[in-house]
Design goal:
CATH architecture of chain A: 3-Layer(aba) Sandwich
Number of helices of chain A: 4
CATH superfamily of chain A: CheC-like
Helix content of chain A: 25-40%
Low-confidence stretches of chain B: none
Mean pLDDT of chain B: 93
Structural class of chain B: alpha/beta
Shape of chain A: globular
Largest sheet of chain A: 7 strands, antiparallel
Number of helices of chain B: 5
Largest sheet of chain B: 5 strands, parallel
Shape of chain B: globular
CATH class of chain A: Alpha Beta
Order of helices and strands of chain B: EHEHEHEHEH
CATH topology of chain A: Chemotaxis protein chec
Strand content of chain A: 25-35%
Distance between the termini of chain B: 20 Å
Bound molecules: magnesium ion
Largest interface: A-B, 30 and 23 residues
Number of strands of chain B: 5
Structural class of chain A: alpha+beta
Radius of gyration of chain A: 15 Å
Oligomer: heterodimer
Helix content of chain B: 40-55%
Distance between the termini of chain A: 16 Å
Chain lengths: ~160, ~130
Amino acid sequence: MTDQVKETIYRVAEDVFEKLAFLFSFREEEREPMDYGAAAVAGVTFTGQFEGRLALAVSEEVLPELAANMLGIEEETTREEQQDALKELINVVCGNLLPELAGRKKMFNVNAPLILSPEEIGVVTAAPPAAAAKLALEDGQCDLMLYLDEGVSLDPESSEAP
Amino acid sequence: MAINILIVDDSTVMRAMILKSLRMTGLEIGETFQAGNGQEGLEALDDNWIDVVIVDINMPVMNGEEMIDHMRENPATADIPIVVISTEGSEARLERLKEKGAAFIHKPFTPETIRDTMQTMLHIEGDD
Ligand SMILES: [Mg+2]
């Protein structure tokens, strides 16, 4: 089951990265998780059919290209634009991922995405994720971690095919 | 006639992306206005002449669906064309938006989708 969820995270992430931010990604299943202390990490919580959190870590080096691509500009981007780009990226990944996991008959509310502080990163990543995806990008790396609240199981029997 | 457009989304980067795509559509764009949530969107509608509203769903303070409800209740804004641009995937919510007369564009989008939706909604013939 986890494999199926992981596969879905990869598929949605690859698609959104490419379409939203013109970033091409490659799966890096075998590598170690990133050093989240040295990365930019955004998080988003969601409620609805099931509840939990999604975290997205990207190497600092990726942020300027991410923001410039999304904004469609050549000039240097500000820190604020870079963080806003990362927040919108996780927002769109999460919004697309949940119906893929639960089916389109189910409803979710995705809360406003946040940039996580080092303390928050520690708290969020302390527990093992329900599923995670590890990607290589041109300028760095990216990890996506899905955390589900206790008692939540993504039983394939209970979800419709999209 | 140039179209005045209000873009309502809590992400400034997304608002810039939508604006950039609009400029690529070839539509004659007049003034553009931006708001970060539904409440600010309604205020912009109060203060300005706006022909089309483009609105996100998930936003703090007031979400897009509530903003649309307020618009439809107010005779001054009830007939303004609305395009929802959102990641929303729930069939029930999409059906509800359709009943409220809003067009829907799924995020992530291409500039072509924005162009086609705007042309259909505004009954404008395409160049190609
Ligand atoms: Mg939003």
